[in-house]
Write a structure and sequence with these properties.
There is one protein chain. With 434 residues, the chain is mainly beta. The protein is built from 5 helices and 25 strands. The strands form 5 sheets. A 6-stranded mixed sheet has the order 4-5-3-2-13-12. It is elongated. The termini are close together.
Length: 434
């Protein structure tokens, strides 16, 4: 359904991430489909004096070998866990991934979670677990948890056409280990915490959640991973290697594994959305690609690779974001009223509201946003909407840092998504077919 009116209020608007750049001149069309390869690897980076991880050899040398393999095999998004005291060696040896998270530190300060990527992201966040257990091991020694980032599969942060972008929300996690009663309770809490965050911050978005879950479907006490499946997530291993059926029969893997049928604790969950479809194409344990020169293993975990294909939505698409990563995900305000009377509004209530009622055959087809600084944060200060009839509606104060957006041919602006609190910090436009 198309909007029947557009409302703006003169003040700051809220939506996307810092680091966005509008490409002037000739705009490159953003792809609407492609391939995505991901890797999850627990890199056994605890200090050797604390834990050998049953891995022979020098840990710094092993970390260098891991980083070199990251470069050699060209995975698009790599999540690592236990990336503690040998982090610098991994990053120094990987020479191909331009986007990397900054380490949060070694033991006992860091979470051990990091990401190396060929694709840019916005809104990177680290979240500590609400609960941990030392029943089996020292899980409370470090601030383990999960990370969140919104990765641009197409368009987005890379310049080009601001009007087209495809995002996926990507989570890296490392849950509590062990099988004692307190460990199981902590791990269930960990996974439920991720699920709650996804519900709050990734509503309506495609999602990838992967890392060291320390969970097995064959363990009766590990029920939270089944809860993820019940919530609408899918497990790439279950789908591709087990025909979609979850089994309670234990099938342990060797290291490196010679079969992909066995189950490890390192898991890859995914979910499509109306904005983007994710389809797993291949699953593999790739420990054979991560070996020392003498053939010994580099980690006590099998690295997991999954190849996906992705496609922009057929019923809904979106632009990139403009503004700053502040406020709650979801001009002091922006609003839409649909033809059936349903109204949507976000941001604050300050400023003077301006409303444009659309004609029966009139659509919202273009927009301009201008961002600036307020109280040390990037926010949108200006919005201008353009309709198919050439009419415009504007509010706020234009700055020199602006971006223009145009619905793809045959589509119209049907809504928006972003972040806002008292004002609109970040904003992106959602398109629907006409």
């Amino acid at each position: 359904m198309k909007p029947s009116s557009i409302t703006t209020a003169a003040a700051a608007a809220a939506a996307a991430a810092a680091g966005l750049a509008f490409a002037h001149g000739v705009l490159a069309a953003a792809p609407t489909a492609g391939d995505l390869s991901i890797l999850s690897m627990n890199v056994a980076g605890l200090p050797a004096i604390l834990n050998s991880n049953d891995v022979p050899g020098d840990k710094t040398t092993n970390a260098q070998t891991i980083g070199a393999a990251f470069s050699r095999y060209g995975f698009d998004i790599i999540h690592v866990q236990e990336d503690f005291n040998y982090h610098a060696a991994i990053y120094a040896a990987d020479t191909t991934h331009p986007y990397r998270t900054a380490t949060s530190g070694g033991v006992p300060f860091g979470s051990g979670l990091n990401t190396l990527s060929n694709l840019p992201w916005l809104d990177f966040t680290r979240v500590k677990w609400d609960r941990c257990s030392d029943a089996s091991s020292s899980d409370c020694l470090t601030p383990k948890g999960f990370t969140f980032m919104r990765v641009a599969l197409s368009g987005g942060l890379t310049g080009g056409d601001n009007s087209a972008a495809v995002y996926v929300d990507v989570y890296n996690m490392h849950t509590d280990a062990g099988t004692e009663a307190d460990d199981l309770v902590a791990r269930q809490s960990n996974i439920n915490q991720v699920a709650a965050y996804i519900a709050a911050w990734s509503a309506g978005n495609a999602v990838l959640v992967y890392g060291d879950s320390n969970s097995r479907y064959s363990r009766a006490g590990d029920t939270a991973i089944r809860g993820l499946l019940a919530s609408g997530m899918s497990d790439a291993w279950v789908e591709l290697e087990r025909g979609g059926a979850v089994s309670a029969v234990e099938t342990l893997c060797g290291n490196p594994s010679t079969t992909d049928y066995c189950e490890t604790v390192d898991k890859v969950f995914y979910r499509s959305s109306p904005l983007a479809t994710l389809t797993p194409a291949a699953f593999a344990y790739v420990g054979g690609r991560f070996l020392q020169a003498d053939g010994n293993i580099l980690s006590d975990h099998n690295p997991v690779q999954v190849n996906f294909t992705w496609a922009a939505g057929s019923a809904l698409r979106q632009s990139n974001f403009w503004g700053g990563p502040h406020g709650t995900y979801w001009l002091d305000g922006v609003g839409l009223t649909l033809a059936d009377g349903t109204s949507f509004s976000h941001g604050g209530t300050g400023g003077t509201a301006a409303t444009l009622a659309l004609g029966a055959a009139e659509y919202w087809v273009g927009a301009q946003l201008c961002q600036g600084q307020k109280s040390g944060e990037t926010r949108n200060f200006y919005i201008r909407a353009t309709t198919s009839a050439g009419r415009t509606l504007a509010a706020g104060t234009a700055t020199e840092d602006c971006a223009t957006f145009a619905a793809p041919a045959g589509w119209h602006i049907a809504g928006y998504v972003g972040q806002g609190g008292d004002e609109v910090d970040q904003l992106a436009f959602v398109y629907a077919p006409r």
